[in-house]
Recover the amino acids of this structure.
């Protein structure tokens, strides 16, 4: 549509990888459950943002993605919409642990991601819980024990809860590292690596970052398999 074309003109997009699919320039193209599509249309969004248009079809092919994009480009739905589709296909028993895990640097960002997951996923009965430090563990453990499809967590708190053996990541098959550069700046690399060891190797991994320094490249090389790289804007 006209709006997605103008996005492409305003934003410099580079996608590198083998057999990269065409962007999805409409919400209808995704094949979403009707209740989720309805939420997207009700939100009043005119069209997918460039990062969404590019990353949805790649993620729907079960491929790993590393996306380098600035704040405000719509990355959250960029990974949540394929996460919903993933859940529709491979949803496990939520009592055994989450199927989707999103790591985020701060409580504030984790809460925003959860809000978006609840807003767009609730009508499809997708459940999401948020784990972050600086708050009592009790309510978070109680939410976990009820069973969840999606966990959004800061690495420190998730690691604490893993050490208490109050959550299992053995069912996770869709892993997102949001704001990876910021998580590394905050010193979360050891926790991230410990967490990822608990996630089965047979998974889809998506990494989002605003910058692309060598520390981020290194962790991407270690955790992702043949990722398609999506660059939006001049971030380097
Ligand atoms: P990022 O993580 O890239 O910083 P967010 O995912 O937080 O960006 O999205 C920024 C804002 O844009 C949010 O308020 C979100 O609801 C909104 N948004 C997401 N997708 C679209 C879209 N397709 N069209 C318009 N606004 C959108
Ligand atoms: Mg974000």
């Amino acid at each position: 549509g006209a709006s997605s074309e103008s996005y492409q003109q305003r934003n410099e997009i580079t996608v590198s990888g083998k057999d990269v699919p065409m962007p999805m320039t409409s919400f209808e193209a995704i094949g979403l459950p009707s209740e989720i599509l309805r939420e997207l249309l009700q939100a009043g969004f005119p069209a997918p943002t460039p990062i969404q248009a590019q990353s949805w079809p790649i993620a729907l092919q079960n491929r790993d993605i590393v996306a380098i994009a600035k704040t405000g480009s719509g990355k959250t739905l960029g990974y949540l919409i394929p996460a919903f589709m993933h859940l529709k296909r491979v949803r496990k028993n939520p009592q055994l642990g989450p199927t989707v895990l999103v790591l985020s640097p701060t409580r504030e960002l984790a809460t925003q991601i959860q809000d978006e997951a609840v807003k767009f996923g609730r009508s499809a009965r997708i459940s999401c819980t948020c784990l972050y430090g600086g708050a009592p563990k009790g309510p978070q453990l109680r939410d976990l024990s009820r069973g969840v499809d999606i966990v959004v967590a800061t690495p420190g708190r998730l690691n604490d809860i893993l050490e208490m053996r109050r959550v299992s990541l053995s069912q996770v098959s869709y892993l997102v590292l949001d704001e990876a550069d910021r998580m590394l700046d905050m010193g979360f690399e050891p926790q991230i690596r410990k967490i990822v060891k608990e996630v089965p190797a047979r998974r889809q991994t998506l990494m989002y970052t605003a910058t692309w320094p060598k520390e981020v490249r290194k962790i991407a090389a270690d955790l992702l398999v043949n990722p398609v790289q999506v660059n939006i804007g001049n971030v380097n």
In short: The first strand starts at residue 13 and ends at 16. Residues 45, 48-49, 52, 71-77 surround adenosine-5'-diphosphate (ligand 1) (CB under 6 Å). Residues 2-232 form a domain with the Rossmann fold fold (CATH 3.40.50.300).
